Amino acid sequence: MAVMGEGVVADPHAPVLCGDDLGLTRGDGCFEATRVVVGDDGVARADHLDAHLARMARSAAELEIPFDEPAWRELLEAALGAWRRPGEGVIRWELTRGREIAPNDPPTGIVTVFPMDAATMRQRTGVTAATLPIGRPSDAFADAPWLLGGVKTVSYAMNMAAGREARRRGVDDVLFTSTDGFALEAPRSALIWRVGDRLRTTRHDGTGVLRSITQAAIFDAAEADGVDVGYELIPVVELPGVDQAWLVSSGRLGAPILELDGRPMPNDDAWNERLAAWFER
Amino acid sequence: MAVMGEGVVADPHAPVLCGDDLGLTRGDGCFEATRVVVGDDGVARADHLDAHLARMARSAAELEIPFDEPAWRELLEAALGAWRRPGEGVIRWELTRGREIAPNDPPTGIVTVFPMDAATMRQRTGVTAATLPIGRPSDAFADAPWLLGGVKTVSYAMNMAAGREARRRGVDDVLFTSTDGFALEAPRSALIWRVGDRLRTTRHDGTGVLRSITQAAIFDAAEADGVDVGYELIPVVELPGVDQAWLVSSGRLGAPILELDGRPMPNDDAWNERLAAWFER
């Protein structure tokens, strides 16, 4: 792992953050993560880096934390330049509001690069999932920017707790559902479903669902190939009737849901291959 | 400020946390904070320390993070022993799941002590507040432990955003309201209201409201004095009709709400003094 601080590759076991950093004490910051692949040429390339930087700029704007795009790009390029481990890795970067007792200091930026974990790679061939109520209606975030819907903050304690709940239930992941009965997203993945030749994902307006870079990359390429793509809300009770569903993220890519709440879901490998190709385009 | 790491008082400007600490990258940890008063004898005393330690033990249990109570007590006593600044301060301590790439390392513990900020002290004489929808029904947390209702996690990005929304609206604080129309709590304070001689606060079951140490201390002492205290839900529309309401926290103590959504609220100083005395008992 490489930890970056102020443009220098640091020892990952050396402390880099002060105890009053608001990213730690208040979860007051945002982050991004994407896959890194080191090819035969030894060069590390990050998937959809521009799109991730653009999303972080939006997250930072919502949090009212300054975002210095050229500085971030330079830092990320330096981290990628220092990463040589063959195969797949993850680059993740956090921006926090900075130090509480030094409010005039710049915000804190951290970049880490580490190998892709084996469990995530295994899940690309399929995941089991359970629906889990998130305690909000599907329009909870409309006109309520203080709820930070769609903002990728580091305040992920609930997302992590949902992951533990998945393990307790013996499934790979959970799918959050609204109090009014719609499927939303997973704690760290977006939902795509297919009905015939049409691809759909959860709409963002009012739902608080994160705008997934992976889903958008797939939809952009699919649409260019003439596929009907769209943003909707699907009632949970209708999910067992779709032709296929995936949980997608920068690490999992397109992981078909093989089983939802104990019931098998249809899985068509031709469509899995199409999604993978669209993601890579 | 004193930052504690591994039992030693550290330079507050020296980094103490690694870049992969899950408290930073996922807001995956919990915290407590309480007032510290250094008296004429130069000794720092923390308010209701046992109750705060007990609540942190519950938070840690919900998060499934080991909590070593004697070690924490020792660390807090050491921090208090090193704090000599006369007057009021705040002691705050965070427990995180620890490092991502060193999962066998112990969890991370940080203690900071700093002077009480002047704005908080001024608010003890009264605050203005605006109601703010939190996008959940009042029973959202019933049978949903993964939502971490009542767990004092460091994932406070939304609480901080609500504070910025208060400043945008020109008020001192916001009061969260449920989608079914009840008043819940403030981002960092509990709500107490008075009707005649009866004191009430928001009930905890299902609401996700944090169990406030300050409110509990006041209610315990008030009840010992024969005052009728209880846990209820109050419709927001009924709040303007109560005889008095307060936002209470370890820093603000009992701050009367002087104005709610632009409308003046009744404020009886005799009751403010009673609350202050009950808190100190």
The radius of gyration of chain A is: 19 Å
SSE arrangement of chain A, N to C: EEHEEHHEEHEHEEEEHEEEEEH
Sheet with the most strands of chain A? Answer: 8 strands, mixed
Assign the CATH architecture of the largest domain in chain A: Alpha-Beta Barrel
Count up the domains of chain A.
Answer: 2
Give a quick rundown of the structure.
Chain A is of the alpha+beta class and 281 residues long. In chain A, 26% of the residues lie in helices and 30% in strands.
Topology:
The structure is a homodimer of 281-residue chains.
Chain A: E1 2-5, E2 8-10, H1 22-25, E3 29-38, E4 44-46, H2 49-63, H3 69-81, E5 87-96, E6 108-115, H4 118-122, E7 127-133, H5 157-168, E8 173-177, E9 182-183, E10 190-195, E11 198-202, H6 213-224, E12 229-232, E13 234-235, E14 244-249, E15 253-260, E16 263-264, H7 269-280
Structure description:
The first copy, chain A, is α+β, with helices and mostly antiparallel strands and about 280 residues long. Chain A has two domains: about 120 residues, D-amino Acid Aminotransferase, Chain A, domain 1 (2-Layer Sandwich), CATH 3.30.470; about 160 residues, D-amino Acid Aminotransferase, Chain A, domain 2 (Alpha-Beta Barrel). In chain A, about 25% of the residues lie in helices and about 30% in strands. Chain A is built from seven helices and 16 strands. In chain A, strands 7, 8, 10, 11, 12, 14, 15 and 16 form an eight-stranded mixed sheet that branches. In chain A, a hairpin with a 2-residue loop joins strand 15 and strand 16. In chain A, helix 6 packs across helix 7. Chain A is globular, with a radius of gyration of 19 Å. The N terminus of chain A is likely disordered.
